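Ticket #4471: structure export looks truncated?
Reporter: QA, pipeline team
Priority: medium

Steps to reproduce: submit the single chain below to the structure queue and open the exported record.
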Amino acid sequence: MFQTPSPVHLVVGAACASAGLMLAGCDRRAEPAPPAAPQVQAPAPPTVPLPPPAMGRSDLLAVMEAAASDYAAGRTAEGQPPAGRRFTIRQAFGCGEPSLSSPDDPAADGVAHWSWGGERRTVDIRLRPADWKDSALVEAAADLEAVEGFWLTRPWLRTESCPDVRVDPVVGQASETSPQTMGLAAVFEPGGSRLGRRSGRAYGFTVRGIGDQPAPAPIGGYRLVLEGRFATFSDGRVIHCRAESLDQRPTCVAAVQLDRVAFESAQGAVLSEWRPG
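Actual output as written to the record:
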């Protein structure tokens, strides 16, 4: 016969069972924490060198003065701007009386100037690039289809505004301007794009007055803006210099590709602009 367990036996059994579970739990070791995932650092983005800033009038004149000195000393010019570097040249013109030169006068080529229109009611602005294809400055440009020149007027003036000087009465007033000695030569290779090439045509713009009023004479002149990139002549150099005698200041020109030509007011307002294409 089976005997019904007494309450005492049940309590003792339960206690033993609990103790067994506790001992089993004590014998079970805690599982180690999974190893932390390695932190993978993203590679630093490559450092892209910034292009040098566009060269301005003052910096370019300093470089060309150094090139003229090296040429006069018989040394190889150093410190020339690299081909491809951008430039923005802004220079003043029309600072005095209007030009009296004929539009067809070759002496006026390569220099921006202004003149009165009919009955002095308009102001005509004009710039015809000079033809330097056969110039000794380019030195055997047989590998070039065309070379159009732009003079950097008043190279002794580093600012972009008109000069502000009083004429010395002892020196007197010169009837002629100083010879041009620094310029930009826009080069065009055979088979290359002819966009932007003027082929003897002038850049021109007419300033008109407001309503029926005549155009006023410019106060502070106008500004010629030349933007582009430096190129090279056939010998790989950017700047060429030449002088006719030992006592004459060398004339230097830089090979360029023009991207923009513009006329501005003295306050910087764009009057007209031209871009290739």
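Status: closed, not a bug. The export was complete when the record was re-opened. Leaving a note from the reviewer for reference: The longest helix spans residues 7-27.
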